[in-house]
Amino acid sequence: MKMSLLAGFVAATFAISTSAHGLKCSIAPPAHATYAQLAALAKVSKNSAQATALRSIKQAGKPSIKSAELEAEHGCLIWSFDIAIAGSTTTHEVAIDAGNGKVLSVTSETPAQEAIEARNDSQPGNAQH
């Protein structure tokens, strides 16, 4: 009985899932997972995800990584990268599926939008992994 319950949990964890925000991802981590638990679930290395994220930026100029983070976001386990482009004030945020290495989203933010996001993330109850 215990084995079938464990197998069911593993299958549910690794099943293709769709979050409330419409992202289709390969790993839906358990709520309130620690960083160590998230890292144990990730199948794609940070270096591999970073290379994919850099290739996803189509803006002219040399891209560079401002920040990188493994996190549970909108029910998906992702590598999240903030990427700056030389000569531009826009930051590109790229979400890479930590299970299969696919690009889930690419968004662009102005410095003002980044400041609002940082302020919202620092509010109690809004902390990300």
SSE topology sketch:
Layout: H1 2-14, E1 17-18, E2 24-25, H2 35-41, H3 46-56, E3 63-73, E4 76-85, E5 91-97, E6 103-109, H4 111-121
Antiparallel strand pairs: 1-2, 3-4, 4-5, 5-6
Please state the structural category: alpha+beta
Name given to the CATH architecture: Roll
Task: Give the percentage of residues in beta strands.
Answer: 25-35%
Radius of gyration: 16 Å
What are the secondary-structure elements, in order, as H or E? HEEHHEEEEH
Instruction: List the uncertain runs.
Output: 1-20
CATH topology: Nuclear Transport Factor 2, Chain: A
List keywords for this structure.
single chain; 129 residues; alpha+beta; Nuclear Transport Factor 2, Chain: A; four-stranded antiparallel β-sheet; two-stranded antiparallel ribbon; 33% helix; globular; disordered N terminus
Could you provide a short overview of the structure?
The protein has helices at residues 2-14, 35-41, 46-56, 111-121, and strands spanning 17-18, 24-25, 63-73, 76-85, 91-97, 103-109.
Structure commentary:
This protein has one domain (2-121): Nuclear Transport Factor 2, Chain: A, CATH 3.10.450. With 129 residues, the chain is α+β, with helices and mostly antiparallel strands. The longest helix has 13 residues, at 2-14. The strands form 2 sheets. Strands 3-4-5-6 form a 4-stranded antiparallel beta sheet. A two-stranded antiparallel ribbon has the order 1-2. β3 and β4 form a beta hairpin. The N and C termini lie far apart (33 Å). It is globular. It has helices spanning 2-14, 35-41, 46-56, 111-121, and strands at 17-18, 24-25, 63-73, 76-85, 91-97, 103-109.
